[in-house]
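Support case: S-adenosyl-L-homocysteine complex. Customer-provided input:
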Amino acid sequence: MPDTSQCRVCSGTVEQFFDFGRQPLADAFVTPGRTGEEFFYRMAVGACRTCTMVQLMEEVPRQHMFHEDYPYVSSGSTVMRAHFEKTAERLLDTELTGPDPFIVEFGCNDGIMLKTLADRGIRHLGVEPSGGVADMAAAKGIRVRKTFFEESVARDIVAADGHADVIYAANTFSHIAYVDDIFRGVRELLAPTGVFVFEDPYFLEIVQRTSFDQIYDEHFYFFAVRSVQEMAARHGLELVDVERLQVHGGEVRYTLAHPGARTPSPAVAELLAEEEARELTHPDTLRGFGESVEGTRERLLALLRRIRDEGGRVVGYGATAKSSTVINYCGIGPDLVSFICDTTPAKQGRLTPGLHIPVREPKAFADPYPDYALLFAWNHADEIMAKEREFRQAGGRWILYVPEVRVV
Ligand code: SAH
Ligand code: TYD
Ligand code: ZN
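Agent response - structure generated as follows:
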């Protein structure tokens, strides 16, 4: 196995720091009876020696991940709906202030963010290749193009709608390996004083909290301020602002602009200094992360086996994409977690990729309550634990594994 690859941002050498082995696609929930058709790839991560960008060693072709049946629906969480309403309000106050502003969002999913803007009559366009969720956005009155965002699409948009004051992407830009094409598109589409705003999981949080389950096929890049700043500069844009967000286990919202168009905020240098002080991509830090991942696997497996051997029953909560990495890397089968409950209709009745744990509807959780619930949707812990207070009152216990394995 080669343990280097070529950086998709700068063509430098990417040095591997952790190998999860053969993994299935995290959102490829399987129809029972069709388990022979699964796609596997080698999932390993590395950091570029030149630009520090952390990335997967192998790219999965996009049509395998994002298609008509892509099951992830953004509006499943109340907290995320509130987050994106707030985001839309902020864009309205700060960027969409001209006489006829125009915003393009790529990866708009079911329209969770654009809905607020569409309701206010703001000129907008969502670009979303996954047909099922794109249809949900359209049903909400959102203007959406069912395609992958790329340079040719950006050019078409300019021809039809003119330049964008804001280009926005949440939990999407880090999914796209072909950044050179995206940046050409963004540069062409963005108005001279416009901003490209995107938010994605923060690699510093992943390392600090050992949230290794953020690593799966769709998450090609693991952004940090240093790597994003270099990436922007190499592709003709400038990083002018950063903001830490609490959602999805800790993210950063990056704001890029045409060079010289905006004065960079002091927040950029501040967060950059923090990454440097913590030696975020130093080989020792990355090795330490790998050791922590192995420690989590050992402790989680030991706990689940002990519960099983004592006759306890564990149910998974939230058939997240993240859970695929935990399940398949740790080797957690239906003998350890009998099923996973999830609110997403498209996941219910299916089996998790790889180790085939059944996914069931939420009401199965209380029918009867298990002894333990393994919280795969740990990023929604507050929302879920508040909703499931009765489980705890009935004597049930939550199992968490981020930042460490514990029972609460
Ligand atoms: N913005 C939403 C959805 C994130 S999931 C949220 O934060 O909840 C990532 C989305 O990006 C998926 O809906 C996927 O179909 C879409 N996507 C992947 N590649 C894309 C591309 N090249 N252009 C536009 N959307 C893309
Ligand atoms: P999420 O953690 O947002 O993302 P990812 O799949 O990228 O790891 O996924 C949340 C999943 O958890 C989604 O399948 C819906 C499910 N869910 C519930 O079943 N109940 C809940 O109360 C919430 C908030 C989510
Ligand atoms: Zn690089």
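Residues 283-309 form the longest helix (27 residues).

Case will auto-close in a few days if no follow-up is received.
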